Amino acid sequence: MRAERVFAYGAAAGLLGDLLLGDPRRGHPVAVFGRAADAVERTLWRDHRGWGALHTAVCAGGAVALGGVAARSVRRSPAASVALTAAATWSVVGGTSLAREAGAIGRALEAGDVEAARARLPHLCGRDPQALDADGIARAVVESVAENTSDAVVGALVWGAVGGVPGLLGFRAVNTLDAMVGHKSPRLRRFGWASARLDDVAGWPGARLTAALAVLTGPDRRGAVRAWRADAVKHPSPNAGPVEASFAGALGLRLGGTLSYGGRVEHRPVLNPQGRAVGTEDIARAVRLSRRVSWLALGVCAGARLIRKGRDR
What single DSSP character describes residue 233? Predict the structure, then answer.
């Protein structure tokens, strides 16, 4: 079986496994990687970009190497190769957990239990929940669903199509490192610089594909295109900007504005300012759009790899 078919069958099985099973309750491979990366950080930490780059190279490079060794060990067995690709895909994508967390917060808001929604929000994003009312929580959830559709699903599929199992594991490693050390706290501003920049590079193609598929599958295509073109560049993140702007336009919502992370207040530009304010009911709409984008991304990535191999022959 050719490598492009191994990826197509394995990625489809892995994404279906995520849909049916979600993340494992214990021993999640990403959590195991996180503990290993934390141990490496404790050994290597210096307030210096060079040491941070070494930390990124050791952790991300180790994940890619592990994927390469695993893929090489089963390359003679098509069934084992598909199974490995499926297991790797299932371990790195998080669409079902994303939908579940968003849905749990949405149900709490619908029941009028804002305190329960605040308690649940840190499972989804790093916003300060106590600073948010019900509408602010709903906006945070929709923005997180949009951004994590790219980070937790589409980006992994893109790099899986490019590099197979090493690509899948490498992308998730880079994304996890950015979440761990890529933020601008005083301790990590220099040390986490390399992880943050590498995540920007790795996330670039997945973010654009996510935005394009939100245009194709969203209820307001023109609105999605308009918001993407007009507002994406205003966002401080080069990858979150296109994704959040396209989701905002597709759903007819107004995203962005003032938010708080770790006690630090940020005043971000408004995305799709002509849209309406986010309501609780929009959480379910964002989740449905995220699912459509995720499954279509699988088709695009698998199809692109099949077409590329066909032209190479």
Answer: G
